[in-house]
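Batch job 17 of 40 flagged for manual review because the log was empty.
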Amino acid sequence: MNPAQSIDFAIEKSSHEEIGSLARSRSYGNLWVIGLALIAFVLKLVIAFNSFGTDDVVTFYHFGKALNENGLEWTYRHSIYFNHPPLAAYYVRAIYQLDHQPFFRDNGLTFPLLLRLPGIVADLVVVFALCWMAGNDSRMRIPTWALALLALSPVSLMVSGFHGNTDPVMVMFLVLASLFCLRGKSVWCGLFLALSCQIKIIPLLLLPIFFFFWLSRRHAVLFTLSFVSTSLVLWAEPLLKFPTLFTKNVLLYGSYWGIWGITYWLRLTNLAMFRMGTFFFDISPVESFVVSVLKLIIIAAVLMIARRRRNLGERALFDSVAYAWIVFFVFAPGVCAQYMVWLAPFALVLSPVFYGWLAASSSLFLFFFYNINADQFPWYGVISDGRHGDWAPWALWPWTTLILGMILLWKKAAAADPSLRLFSLQTLREP
């Protein structure tokens, strides 16, 4: 072997050793993260076994009773609060029936626990999925500390372990749909995106991002067929029997007024026009106009994100979803406490540092929300009795973090590409 060949061999050997060392380091880090996720899984189960949760649990119990005794159509017709798609309704009815079985009651498998169990499992699946992608896809470089924070996140401990709702399951399906974009699997992406919309309707907002992503790769037809066929099958009962009720309760769902972001500040003005109600169906015409404007801003922004970023790499799909969530939470007319899990995995991939600040501010908000409404610690049950003035100011912490994050992320993008314009339909390209 001549000297030149020896040098090339040494460089190649060193490069392979370095790659192997990095792979081993990521593997060890992921093992630690998975271990922490399993610890969090056990902690959430302990919390769920030893607490009742929030008044959402009571609400879901009444939904389960109505669904079991009167069916889906009756429940939509007699409760405007019932805004859940059929798949979630079928699960609530099933666990209501299981709750009345002696075996389940005798072994502590009660309705409050069964309601939270899918979310607890969903959190574990999300961490496993992100760890697997971080360890097997060079486009997903996520620091170990950030994955560890996600695994042990106080936000998910409080929402999945204590609150009692279906939001973490929706997030799991949405993360899986996004990961299949990285794998180039349009059919699976459509399936899991449709499943996320069967838990909560809000992922429909993100549909343009996924559609334009697959359109730019000439797989839009397969994606659309998968998404639409899955949705039609799972929505078959309401679409065929009572489409108007379904549209009114589910597709046109609003939220609380005056407890988050812009509407909170408007409520603080003490003007009569901004203090008429708190829920979406009893607000004043002026409040309704503001809600409509904020929703249009969100929809327009998501459409712009979807169109402008459609030709970027597969990894950018996660960033696009994160940007959409950030816009949603900054301009949303109302946000409930459990919504804080929605954007966590996507914010983590977009910017681990931003996610860290968001997790800290969201944890503060949630702790004081539950603690104020529970009147004691540790919490067993929480009834939100309208004391918005006591805990709503704490919601400003995550809202402000999101605004600052949005500004700083934009400045970072503009610094990397001086030609970038905020209000433009120009398609972005990979640098």
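Reviewer: the log was empty due to a logging misconfiguration, but the result itself is present. The chain is about 70% helix and 0% strand. Unflagging and moving on to job 18.
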